[in-house]
Structures are given as C-alpha cells and as structure tokens.
Design brief:
Elements (H helix, E strand, L loop, with lengths): L13 H4 L11 H18 L3 E3 L10 E4 L8 H12 L6 E5 L1 H4 L5 H9 L1 E3 L2 H9 L3 E4 L3 H5 L16 H9 L3 E7 L6 E5 L5 H8 L16 E5 L3 E4 L12 E4 L16 H23 L9 H14 L1
Parallel strand pairs: 1-10, 2-5, 2-6, 3-4, 3-5
Antiparallel strand pairs: 6-10, 7-8, 8-9
Helix pairs in contact: 2-3, 6-8
C-alpha cells in the first residue's frame, strides 16, 4: 500500500535524515524486523489481532497517542510496534517505556526493547527523538490508565496528563490518535489496593536517598485475576488470556496552525487534549458496540475461523 502524504507534512527531508539516526539509542531496525518476524505470527494468531488505518499515517514525524490497557503485559503495545515494523513504515517509530522497565537494560528483554525502539518515558527524550526524525508513541494515561478496573476497560482516561500536547506543539508535529480494544480482557483487574510505597519505606529504614525513587516504584497496586496466579495483588508477570485485540489508527490531527509558544497556553493545550480524547473515546465506543468479551465481534471470529480452515 502506498503511503499517504498529507498536506501538513513539511518537505524538509526528515525521512532522509533517519538513515543517520537508525542506531540512535541502540535502535536497530533490521534486528527489530527479524525479531518481529519471529514473534508476530504467534501473537497475531493467539490474540486474533487486527490492525486498521495504515493509510492514516503521515510520512513525516508524528506523535502517536493511544489509550493504555492490559496491565503489566500491555500486549497491544507490542502488537502495534511489531506490526508497524513489519510494514517497514517510515518514519521509524520509537515508543516511550516506564523507568522500571528500562532498569532491565542489561537483561535480554531490555536489549530487545532498546533495539526495537524503546526509549525512556521522558519529555526530553521524546522531543529529541522527534527532532531526530523519528515518530513517537506515547500513552498519556500511563500506569493509572493501564491498571484501571475491568469495568472501565472501555473508557479513555489520561488522568489530566497533557504533556503530550505540549510536546507536539513544541516539536510542531501532527498528533495521530490510535485506539485499542481487547488488551484489557487479557486479565481482570478488580480494583486497586491503597498501600504506602514499600520501596520508599525500605529506603527510609536503610537511610537511603529516596529522591527520584518514585520513577521506579508503581503508582498502582491492582487486585487482579490472572493466569496462573488466580487472584493476585501488584504487578506479577502473567499469561495473558487469548482475548481478541483490535487496533485502529485514526486520521491525524493537524496542529500546525498553532505556534510552538502555544504549548504554554492552558486553553489551547486543554482544547487539543479534549479533541484527542474525544476522538479516541468515540472510536472506542464504536469498537465496543456489540463486542463479546474475549471473543470480540462475531464477524471477526468468523473471519478468523474461515482463514484457519483455508490455511488447513
């Protein structure tokens, strides 16, 4: 499919500059592509994954903004990243990752994340990536949205975080909303346990400096039903249930009529934030209509079933 060039994409040669930045932050597209080829087919079959809207992607750097789901595993994020890589889509996509995950940088999973495009979830890092010619994926709702109760799985909640709008305005890039459904059915989050930070308490007992420790400690303590633990508290790795997952890339939002200084205007920032969340919520409501939990829409199940029969 030919990439769609949108009018607000500047002819600045940003895509050409990407070649010089391919290994920036240890990002290695070819290695990421080989890895995606190995794991994506299994994940796609397991979650009966569907992704739509590729034609909505600009061919210049953009900020992709999505709803966050799935608890610790957040498998829709990896499905999105893998599909984007296998499309060989340009500009290349970097995605923001929680500090706690970046702590595993010396482990195999950490190296896979870095080479696949992960960067620390930090405003400065994201802006630098955009300026280098990459696109960036961000989930403004963060950990709180990612661990919201199962009963709120069809709600978009950024918890007042608007930094992504300021980032897009300062970097002068379009915002591409991306909506996901199904990942919050890979586990069942019953609610949250309100407990003080154990990490901070231990640090204080040991007389350690707790400054900045909040970046690595969870803000949520979900009470969940997961496999194989049953009822669990906190962020334990689990085997995701095989819920059907769908991701839709929505048309980009052009904010080029606003100057970079608009990032400091609360009214403009608030207006764009409401617009983005409104688009995401409307799309999520449409996807949720007539959806059967874990199964998805019946037409998707029928499509998957007949494809399996045809392959056999």
């Amino acid at each position: 499919m030919q990439e769609k060039k949108l009018d607000f994409c500047p002819d600045s040669g940003a895509n050409d500059s990407l070649q010089a930045n391919i290994i920036s932050g240890e990002y290695d597209f070819e290695e990421a592509y080989v890895l995606a080829q190995k794991i994506f087919p299994f994940l796609k079959a397991y979650f009966r994954f569907e992704m739509e809207g590729r034609s909505n992607l600009p061919n210049c750097p953009f900020l992709m903004v999505g709803n966050h789901s799935g608890g610790l595993m957040c498998v829709d994020s990896y499905l999105l990243a893998a599909q984007y890589i296998l499309w060989r889509q340009r500009p290349y996509l970097r995605f923001l990752v929680h500090d706690a995950l970046m702590l595993f940088s010396q482990l195999p999973i950490g190296k896979i994340l870095r080479k696949g495009g992960a960067i620390r979830a930090d405003y400065a890092h994201a802006k630098k990536a955009l300026e280098a010619g990459f696109s960036v994926l961000v989930y403004p709702g963060g950990e709180k949205e990612n661990n919201r109760p199962f009963s709120r799985r069809h709600e978009v909640d950024f918890f007042g975080h608007v930094g992504y709008v300021q980032l897009a305005l300062e970097a002068q890039v379009p915002i591409v909303p991306v909506v996901s459904i199904g990942a919050h059915e890979t586990l069942i989050i019953l609610g949250q346990l309100k407990v003080p930070s154990i990490a901070n308490q231990i640090a204080e007992i040991l007389g350690l400096n707790t400054q900045g420790l909040e970046k690595f400690t969870p803000q949520t303590h979900p009470i969940s039903i997961t496999f194989p633990w049953g009822v669990s508290i906190g962020h334990l790795p689990f085997l995701p249930l095989p819920a059907q997952i769908t991701i839709q890339i929505l048309p980009p939002i052009d904010i080029s009529s606003y100057p970079p200084r608009a990032a400091q205007d609360p009214q403009i920032v608030g207006y764009i934030d409401r617009m983005v969340r409104g688009y995401l919520q409307a799309a999520l409501d449409k996807l949720a209509k007539n959806r059967i939990p874990w199964i998805g829409k019946l037409e998707s199940l029928n499509k998957w079933f007949f494809q399996k029969r045809a392959n056999n």
